[in-house]
Write a structure and sequence with these properties.
- It is a single chain.
- By secondary structure, the protein is mainly alpha-helical.
- The protein has a single domain (3-110), classed as Rossmann fold.
- The protein is 50% helix and 10% strand.
- It has six helices and three strands; from the N terminus they run βααβααβαα.
- Strands 1-2-3 form a three-stranded parallel sheet.
- It is globular and about 35 Å long.
- The two termini are 13 Å apart.
């Protein structure tokens, strides 16, 4: 696994949104061509559902994400939020990453 996507990058990937940076798009294409995976945090699934319920992202985004995860040979895999992830959050200063979901996501590659 080469990377973990934050929530907005994942949503932009799902919708082929031009806000997804060229670097991120290139990384995703390279990962897909090498039959590797890109992770999304289990917390991202929670956040997508929450944002959809608040109508801050398109209706159906959560189902689109689930479908992408369940597709055979999917590029995406779910990274669980474990005790080790919570402990790794200690290494990410809240002053640098104040948003809780972003801190969890940032901690996941640290384990």
């Amino acid at each position: 696994m080469l990377a973990i996507l934050d929530t907005h990058a994942l949503i932009w990937y799902l919708y082929d949104d031009p806000r997804l940076s060229k670097n991120a798009r290139d990384m995703l294409e390279k990962t897909a061509s090498s039959n590797d995976h890109v992770a999304c945090s289990a917390l991202t699934l929670v956040e997508v559902l929450y944002l959809q319920e608040k109508e801050r992202i398109p209706a159906g985004t959560f189902d689109r994400l689930l479908e992408a995860l369940e597709t055979k040979n999917s590029l995406l895999v779910v990274a669980p939020v474990t005790v080790a992830v919570v402990i790794a959050m200690r290494n990410i200063p809240r002053t640098e990453v104040p948003d809780l979901p972003d801190r969890v996501i940032a901690a996941q590659p640290c384990i």
